[in-house]
């Protein structure tokens, strides 16, 4: 597979324009495909040389960077001014700013701090014809009409190649702490989550963790892992006095009969637990990873039912946001998934009126892509398929940018089927 490395935005404009003329497919950036074989029929465009800091206004809390800068370098430049962008990114040493936007990464901290959508002020990008355009600006209230910068968030690079981004950032909190509570029952976990969400203070993250992956972690405290059903990992950010107050409010739960243990994570493990929480749902060559969005108040029961039908799986729920990530071994078959998902839907049907969609984020590299495509669909309303198609035609009429993205494949399949029936 050929790799191209433009050194300037102008080089990238020329490259995309030539590719559009010759109908050459391109894969731009470092955000991962659903399966590694997805890249075989595309030329990879590495934008790592577009990595300059354009402007940093520390007083206005805004920063402009080129999209090829890695998030690690971006974070370090902000930290020098005691600032940060509170967005969780897997593999920050290789993930670029462009990939952060295109993949819409959002981890545990989104409960309090939101997602990249809340901080992106403006972008510069190149569409599938090689046309350079910009949207937004350097201040929050600077958009008249439709905000194209928000449209590109989560687009997986299918609409345009991002070259520059402007963010609003925040002051770096003076202290961060993780509290882990080992719960014997699902009911006590649900009570603790409700207590945290209704408290006078706001946690930065509430993570519900269960399954083999988490029970094997030596840094997660418990007196008896055999009696531990799940863990609650609670992140607190702010002034030292604020965190001390929250810890005092949490202390009474430690003596609850259904709580095995409660403790702060040692400083030597803070980076470890945060990294593993962020990267749990990131691509792994040997794992299936699914994601499902539900109402936050039903997250505990939903996780309990999923664990019942996937007893060997590992689970991570962003409890305050209603997002459940499921990690399963590559030995699991597609047929077994379908059977288990159907049983889960049947058991939850009395609580959920609409269909529950398990979105496939990652498949093992050992599974043929054709088998994955035939086994998993991306159900959307007809209007969504039509809108996806119209957007794709407007931004990338030659279909050269990430055309093997599964969402657009689903759209194409639906529209072809509709045209055939007509």
Characterise the protein shown here.
This protein has 422 residues and is of the alpha+beta class. The protein has 3 domains: 3-171, 2-Layer Sandwich (Uridine Diphospho-n-acetylenolpyruvylglucosamine Reductase, domain 3), CATH 3.30.465; 175-279, Alpha-Beta Plaits (2-Layer Sandwich); 287-375, Alpha-Beta Plaits (2-Layer Sandwich). 34% of the residues lie in helices and 23% in strands. The protein contains 14 helices and 18 strands. An 8-stranded antiparallel sheet has the order 14-11-13-12-16-17-15-18. It has a 5-stranded antiparallel sheet with strand order 4-5-9-7-8. Strands 1-3-2 form a 3-stranded parallel sheet, with no helix packed on it. A hairpin with a 4-residue loop joins strand 4 (53-57) and strand 5. Helix 10 (299-309) packs across helix 11 (334-348) and helix 13 (382-395) crosses helix 14 (406-421). It is globular, with a radius of gyration of 22 Å. The two termini are 40 Å apart.
Task: Please outline the helices and strands.
Layout: E1 3-4, H1 9-22, E2 26-28, E3 43-45, E4 53-57, E5 62-66, H2 71-79, E6 83-84, H3 97-103, H4 110-113, E7 120-127, E8 132-136, H5 148-152, E9 160-168, E10 170-171, E11 175-183, H6 186-197, E12 205-211, H7 212-215, E13 230-238, H8 240-250, E14 259-264, H9 267-279, E15 287-293, H10 299-309, E16 314-318, E17 323-329, H11 334-348, E18 359-362, H12 369-375, H13 382-395, H14 406-421
Helix pairs in contact: 10-11, 13-14
């Amino acid at each position: 597979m050929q790799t191209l490395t433009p050194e300037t935005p102008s080089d990238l404009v020329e490259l995309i324009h030539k590719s559009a003329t010759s109908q050459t497919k391109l894969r731009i950036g470092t955000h991962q495909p659903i399966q590694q074989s997805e890249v075989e029929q595309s030329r990879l465009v590495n934008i790592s040389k577009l990595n300059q800091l354009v402007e940093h206004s520390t007083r206005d809390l805004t920063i402009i960077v080129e999209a090829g800068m890695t998030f690690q370098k971006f974070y370090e430049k902000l930290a020098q001014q005691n600032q940060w962008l509170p967005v969780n990114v897997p593999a920050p040493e290789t993930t670029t700013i462009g990939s952060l936007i295109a993949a819409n990464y959002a981890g545990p901290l989104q409960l309090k701090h939101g997602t990249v959508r809340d901080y992106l002020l403006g972008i510069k990008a190149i569409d599938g014809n090689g046309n350079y355009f910009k949207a937004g600006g350097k201040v929050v209230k600077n958009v008249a009409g439709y905000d194209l910068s928000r449209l590109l968030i989560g687009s997986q690079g299918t609409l345009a190649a991002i070259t520059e981004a402007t963010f609003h950032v925040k002051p770096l909190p003076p202290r961060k702490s993780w509290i882990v509570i080992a719960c014997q029952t699902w009911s006590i976990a649900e009570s603790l989550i409700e207590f945290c969400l209704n408290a006078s203070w706001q946690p930065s993250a509430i993570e519900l963790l269960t399954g083999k992956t988490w029970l094997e972690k030596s840094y997660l405290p418990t007196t008896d892992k055999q009696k531990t059903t799940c863990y609650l990992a609670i992140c607190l950010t702010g002034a030292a006095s604020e965190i001390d107050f929250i810890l005092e409010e949490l202390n009474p739960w430690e003596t609850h009969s259904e709580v095995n243990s409660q403790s702060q994570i040692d400083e030597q493990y803070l980076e470890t637990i945060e990294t593993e929480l962020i990267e749990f749902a990131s691509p792994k060559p040997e794992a299936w990873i699914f994601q499902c969005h539900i109402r936050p108040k039903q997250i505990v029961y939903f996780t309990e039912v999923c664990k019942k039908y996937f007893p060997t799986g590992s689970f991570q729920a962003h409890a305050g946001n209603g997002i459940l990530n499921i990690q399963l071994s590559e030995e699991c078959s597609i047929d077994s998934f379908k059977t288990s998902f159907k049983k889960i839907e049947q058991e939850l049907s009395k609580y959920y009126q609409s269909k529950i969609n398990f979105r496939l984020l990652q498949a093992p590299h050992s599974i043929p892509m054709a088998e994955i495509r035939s086994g998993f669909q991306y159900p959307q309303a007809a209007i969504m398929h039509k809108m996806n198609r119209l957007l794709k035609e407007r931004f990338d009429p030659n279909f050269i940018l990430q055309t093997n993205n599964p969402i657009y494949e689903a759209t194409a399949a639906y529209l072809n089927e509709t045209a055939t029936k007509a």
